[in-house]
Amino acid sequence: MSLSLQARQLACERDDRWLFEDLDLDIRAGEIVRIEGPNGSGKTTLLKILSGQLADYQGELFWNGMPMRESRRAFLESLLYLGHAPGVKAALTPLENLTWYQALAGESDNEAARLAALESVGLVGYEDVAVGQLSAGQQRRVALARLALTPRPLWVLDEPFTAIDRDGVAALEERLIVHARAGGCVLVTTHHELRKTDELRRVQLGRGGQSHGGL
Amino acid sequence: MAVSETRLSEKEGRGVSRGEPGGGLAVALWATLRRDLTLLMRRRGEVLNPLVFFALVITLFPIGISPDPQLLATIAPGLLWVAALLAALLSLDSLFRGDYDDGSLEQLMLTPQPLPMLAMAKVAVHWLMTGLPLALMAPILGIMLSLPAGSYLVLALSLALGTASLSLIGAIGAALTVGLSRGGVLLSLLVLPLYIPVLIFGAGSVQAAIVGDGVAAHLAILGALLALSLMLAPWAIAASLRISING
Amino acid sequence: MWAFINKLRSPKWFYAISAKLQPFFWVAAAGLILTGTVWGLAFAPADYQQGNSFRIIYVHVPAAFLAQSIFVSMAVAGLVYMVWKIKIADMAAAMMAPLGAAMTFVSLFSGAVWGVPTWGTWWMWDARLTSMLILLFLYLGVIALRGAFTSRDSASRAASVLAMVGVINIPIIKYSVDWWYTLHQPATFTITGRAAMPMEMWAPLLIMVLGFYSFFIALTLMRTRSEILRRESNKRWVRDLAGEMR
Fold it and tell me: Can you give the residue ranges of every domain in chain B?
């Protein structure tokens, strides 16, 4: 499985302020790319552009060598995005939440997969409790269960470590590495210091449009 | 949160091989419908509030104007329609707001399925839980306003047809204002002028039924308005949601 | 066509070209409105039924025309902005909205004033006046929506979408209000009800309409120019311009 996400001459202007300009990025299979930069340097915006949510940018994006605008559907079918908000409904149970995500991904109803996904994030015993009654960290774990539920090669994670306890952080970090080693690809922003491994690569977004693609 | 490498890579393979173009949309639409219905059933107050509001507003008029049955009968079609329209407007603000606040809306946009269709599923739920109950309840309130006999069925029918258009048009406004923290009043300002044609033909059909004119023309125009809304509103809703999510 | 669209992308180009166009439209507006006013008020014959009070159409009708045209132009500008991402179009649309609302108000107000001698009341639910009132609400909605966003890019897009939705609805609203009116009211006077109007009456009207349009174009150019300077104030060419003036 080869996958690549390329950005050429990427630039984003929001309300007459350049968040970044001339950004070249090459993201390949087997990599964990951490986007770094001070607050307000456009990390979230960059992730939104790279995950196909924002069309308001200059430059070109390529998914597996094809221009993003032409391969959008194929791209979305390979993408799993987790944003700041966990995207889980407080009034529904973790199982019900996952049912919806399973259906959105086009997969048929598969309870065993959902239970396994919840188990992988340590939520056994909470399957039928309304998410609103869970702690913030547990709610985040429900969202993270999607990593196991709908297997997608490209993960775009915006601050995934928020609200998670130390064990959870270690397990999630391990999971990112495993995913990269299995041929997947992870794009992540986080304030948490990631363990240095061969897979990890950093991309620095600076203030005032100075940015360095690559190492 | 421990995970073994073998299981992940095995799942990975399954996920990639499972390309699901055609049937995926139906599954996603059905799941979205079911999810939103479940959510509303868990918070039944949100479903009942517009109905109670409808009944309350109708109660205000005899008190504010006159209990004279003859007078009430002449203004009943308009009153019922205006009150139902306002009641349908009431629940519109929450149409996308919950999903916006908890991040589900972002996820909805990132599915490979077309956003206009998924938005339609949400609008359909809004109509099922607001427009349809209002239409079914209106005849009872019609009795209280001494609405002349023979127009009850037309009242319910015109409301059922009309509120579907109202849900569609209103959803555009809801999508435009979902990113604003206090969008409720603004939403009414945006949407009410666009509701006027539906109101004219909706109330007109009930009046025609009372007078004894044919109502087919009115209902046909209401149907045409609905068809037009069905054609155009989904795109406008999707475009508006995209704008709001990136605000 | 494409070359023109690409040129429109450059605010600097627009700023230069509009400087040349603007005086022409101001002169045309002043000349036409002056001619139309004098002709219409002093020389056009009085109406055989309404007497001199009919002369208010020389303000009412051009304002009503303009009010509708501005909404359409605003929607077209919104479409251009959404499709080609031309910022000038959005700036123009933003400047048009208050002017359109003002014109709608002028036409409503003149209609109300005209109603006093004709209907004996300030307000009648006349089909045209009702449509105009709804148009005013549509304008207010667009203006309010644009003002409600903190991000200007989002505000521009949202206002563009709403203007487009509105422009699709305007004919529907107009048609349904006309239908509603004929159902509820026997035919009474409307300001411009009768088709047959002698040449001496409608010629000044035509001149007034053209004058109002020129005024609208001139004012929009002027306001768009100042909006360009405001939005592009951190761009180099604007700073250079400010330097030259100093």
Answer: 26-246
